[in-house]
Each structure stands twice: as C-alpha cells, then as structure tokens.
Predict the 3D structure of the following.
Amino acid sequence: MVLNQIEVKNINFFRQYWLEFIVFGFILAILMIDLSPDYTYMCKAADSIGYAYSAKYLYPSFHTSPPLYLLISHLFLQIPLGTDAWRMGLVSVLSTMGTCVFIYLSIRKLLSESTKAKLYALLGVLVYGTSAIVISQSIVIQTYALVCLFASGSFYFAISKRWNLMALMIGLGCVVHLLAFFVALIMILFFKDFRKRWQSWLIMGLCLVFYIYIPLTNRPPYMWMPDPSMVNSNMPHILVNIYSFVTDTLSTIGFLIGKLSIWDIPKRIFDIIGLVGISIGVITIIPIVYYFRKTKFYTNPLFWLSFIPVFIFCIELDFNTYDYTMLAIPFLAIVTALGMNKLIEHHGKKMVRLAIVTVIVLVGFGGYNLNFFDIGRTLDKNMSASKLFYEEFDKIPDGAIFMPVYVANWEAIYQYNRDNNKHIYPVCYDVLPSQGYLNQLTKDGVKFIKGTNKNLSVQAMETARSIVTLNDNVWTTVWTDPSTFGSEVVNANHDISLVSIYDEELIKQTAENPQWHWKPYAPYDILSNSICILQWNYVLLSNHNISRVLLYGVMGWALVYFVANFAKRKKKGNECKKS
C-alpha cells in the first residue's frame, strides 16, 4: 500500500515525538481520572461552590476576586458535558497541561546546546506532572493551576526575549491571583531589557482592566463585596465598589502575611519540608541543590521564583495557603533538569543511573498520587460537599436564616438559591466582625448583639450566638465527618452550643501557654486538607507573630547602626582635631 504525503508526515511526526506523547499522555490520564466529578471540599476545594456561583452568574467572589479565572470558567460552564464542578475543573487540568508545555520549552531553550535536551525537558515535565501538590490543585475548582500557566509562560518568553508576550503572561497572571504580582516583580528585576520597553509596560497595565469586572458585577445579593449603600451613601456606587475591593484586599493581605505565631514557625518549617519534598519527588533534591550550589543562586531568577512562594507560606497565618507553594513547582522542575544536566556533565555516566532512578521514583509517585487523589473513589468517597448541596439544603425552609459553621457552606447557599428559586438568607461567621456587614444584616432584618471580645474570632462567635438566640428559624450545620468537611443541616432552635466554631478552652490554653508545635503533619493530610479544622483551633491566637519580631529586629538593627555610625563619626572627628 502506498502512503500519501500527509500520512508519511504524520508517521514521521509520531516517530519524532513518541516519547512526548507517552509522558504528556501519562500526566493527562492522571488528571482526567482524578478530576472531581462534582463538588468536593477536599484538596482546598472549599472555594469551589463560591467560584462556581460567581462564574456561572457573573458575580465577584472573595475579597481578592480572580476576574479572568471567573470569565474563563464562565465559558467552560457552557460545555454540554458533566457537572458544573467537572467543567470548571477542566480549566485546572488544561492549565496544568499548558504549564507542562512551557516547562518543556523552557528547558529545551536553556539546554539548546545539549544533545539530550529533549530528555531533560521531559524529566522536568515529569517532575511537575506527577507532583502531589500539582495533582491535588489540578483536579478541583481552583486558581493556582492557571497562575502557574501564566507564570511559567512569562519565564519562557523572557528567556526567549519575546518581551510583549512575557508582559501579556505576567499581566494575565495578575488578574487571576495576587501571587502573580510577586512573579511580576522578580521578572521585572531580573530582565533589564524588558524594563526598557514601554510597550510591554502598557500591555501589563491594560491586563489590569479585567479588575473592572468586580465593581461592574457587584450587585444584590452581595456575597463578599459589600452593599455600596452600607459603606458610604455619599459616594457613587462604582467608586464604593472599587474602594471596598482595594481596602478588603489590603486588609486580607495584612491579616495573613507575617501574622503566624513565632511558636508555630518550627512546625511550619517542618511542614514545608515534607510538603515540598514529596511534591518534587524527594530524590530531585539532589540535582536542585547541586545546581544552586554551582551557580550564584541569588542572581538567578529561578531561585527567587522557587523561593518566594514557599517563603510566603512560611509566614502566613492561614495554614491553608499551603497551595501557594504550587507556584514554586514549575521552576523547581526546570531546575531539576538543569541540575541533572550539570551532574552528568561533571561526573560522567555514573550520574545517568541517578537520572534513571529519578524517573522511576517520579513514575512511582505519579502512580501513588493517581490512586490517592482519585476524588469520589479513594478520596471523599461520599462526596460530602455534593451531598450537602443537593440533599441537605433541601431541609431549609424558604425565608429561613442559614448560618453554617463552615464558611464554604455559606457561599453555597447563594448558588442553591439561584438554581432553585429559593430565598434562604445566608449569614457568614467570617464577616461578622465587619461593621459594614452588620449594617447590612440590620437592613435585612436580622437581629443580633455585636460581640465585644478583642479576639475577632471569638467576637464573631459571640455575635453568631446572639443571632441564634434572638431570631426564630435559624438553621446551621453540625459535623458528621470533619476530615472531609462532611456535615448535615439542622435547626438551631436557639441552641447556642451549635455555633461554637472554635474550641474556646483550647484557644485560651494555647494563648496562655504557647507551645513549640514541632511535630509536622503528614504531607498528604495537608494536601487533602483533612487537617484544616484542627489547625484553626490554635493558629489564630498569638500576638507574638513574625511581623512583630521582624519589626523589633529592624528597630534593633537601626539602633545599632545609628549608634555605631555615631561612634565612628565621633572617633573620626577626634582624630581630625588631634591632627
């Protein structure tokens, strides 16, 4: 049989890239098998229903609302296959596959003189695609896979000196998650030619126009962004919306970054080591350390792109920001390939064995992670969030107040109301300390007495208990399986014990007797998010936090510097007088 020209080209193409088909196909198969079939709260997907509601009906979500992610997800929700959760999960899957492409291209670009560049590039792809944290965040509704896509894309276009495309990647990343601003800062500092191009700056700036989505879409019912009339009735609503977004974003950053108690730092470091270690396959630490040792790491953007996300998690109050570390993985994957190349160059064929063992270990991690993160089969078998959304909410009568102990359940009511034409009134624990939110509750007829405790979490609980006491027909949730966030809906019936979101006695003991929490969590308990409830029992407490320690450190350094310089100048003045 004679093959036509197109068939010959296809055969040659497959012969040239057959290994790529295997590696990329392996990763895609893992993600598609593990992709959550419906709503889940596992793997930090507690934001999922809130994101789905915001994307489906075009509302803002959360204080730092990701406008581009919501718009892309809105398009994916039009796909006539699967559930809303599955469709939005596809955004994460495809973003991760795109990141794998940029990792592959970056390594081939950096090792263009090596005859084995293709193999090293596939090694980097394997590191990223089999990573535990990458898989956990790529099978649920979350923004981090998309941020990694734009971050890795900006790096590839930077080393290719395609500055406008680099600017576009940076700008698009910044309208998905605030983490991308750290990537932007590093890229701007390290690529001097980019800084000289006003066109690139213009492209980045124009991308930020996407944030107009937030004030434009903020309308009743108000979820995270407040009712403008409750903030300042003398200002136009559009300006109030913009002002609220900026102040809420800054307050959220100020609340989280640097607020971790110093007593928790040792434990957090141990947790980071375990989390990042298993997420890069453990054995890849060898080529990573070797590469940074053989280069001036502090002058290398790859070091800072890997280090900053991990460092942010190290000082953040909220333990559930562990997913920030995912942004380090694409760059650590690139470094793994570069380090392996250097090892084999400097130490000969004996390092080839290390490369082979590394591939075997990564494939093994990929197989283990495939099984562990198979949502609906091995992880969250009962699909707790879906059960709550589709079954438990039906118990709540129309017109009732719903105040769950877990904030994600509060967000879910907005979509449940919209999908089922119901009018259940949601009340959120997290926002109760906000005076603007309390004004909104008053306007809507919810009775309460504002809590007085200086600890905002306890103050919120006091306010919540008053809502249960003063209002009839208040419904809440009780835990059935906290490790999967499983809960059932019940009528509070004025029982204030049902709204004790935090263990007050444990909080008091921890605040009065801070412990060195040295024992790390199992990394897979972190990744599945099953330890979330336990963690918040004590993490909100100590004022002896990193910010305060750094402040004292800077003040102490400034004092020593001033005294030393004063003494030096005085000594020099005395010497001049003598001469």
User: Anything to note?
Assistant: The CA atoms of residues 124 and 334 lie 5 Å apart.
